[in-house]
Specification:
Order of helices and strands: EHEHEHEHEHEHHHHHH
Keywords: DNA-binding, Phosphoprotein, Transcription, Transcription regulation
Mean pLDDT: 84
Pfam family, one: GerE
CATH class of the largest domain: Alpha Beta
Largest sheet: 6 strands, parallel
GO molecular function: DNA binding
InterPro entries: CheY-like_superfamily, NreC/VraR/RcsB-like_REC, Sig_transdc_resp-reg_C-effctor, Sig_transdc_resp-reg_receiver, Tscrpt_reg_LuxR_C, WalR-like
Protein name: DNA-binding response regulator
Radius of gyration: 19 Å
Low-confidence stretches: 1-10
Structural class: alpha/beta
Strand content: 5-15%
Amino acid sequence: MPEQLRPSPPEHRSPMRCVIAEDETLLRHGLALVLEQAGFELVGSAVDAPSLVTLTREHVPDLVVTDIRMPPHHTDDGLQAAVQIRTMMPRVGVVVVSQHLQRRYAVDLIGDNPAGVGYLLKQRIGDIPTFCADLQRVCAGGTALDPEVAALMLTRARTDKAAVGRLTVRQQEVLAAMAEGRSNAAIARALFISDKAVVGHVSHIYDQLGLPDCADDHRRVLAVVRYLNG
């Protein structure tokens, strides 16, 4: 076969490297199993917040997944470690998981850079395909907010900002889905409306919020989450 007609060899992609932090042994092992079965390479496992920071510095992984309430103080140590990691190594994707829904956690974690970050509630992890898809999105530089987190932020924004309050109920639903990181097609499926209707709602949302229109879904999500963050 002529050289120019030979098929290219399949592209080899290295598995995404991950560090996890969870002080409960059963949950830690379960999370490790889920990640390994999803194709991640587990390079470190921490049982407290200081160890998480140390392991992340040592391995510089693609992704960090951590509980919020961790030793040594069992308050928001895991969250503070996550914020520290995002400051030191902004290219590392960070996902925090928690049983607790707190707007302050989301605000502290996202800061002014909602790229490569996620805040998910532990009860959602049972939906393993969705959980793994959220992790993949964060690794790719996207945003993954639990629907309840996005709804809480939207409620606060609706109270604080007259522009959000002027959106229709449907537009607020679309905005919440955008903040979760969903594409137009995913929003259409979730809300049982057409893709064209979603595009129309998004356009009106941009107009109402004074946000610049952009064809890039990722940048759109970042703009909306940044707005909801205040």
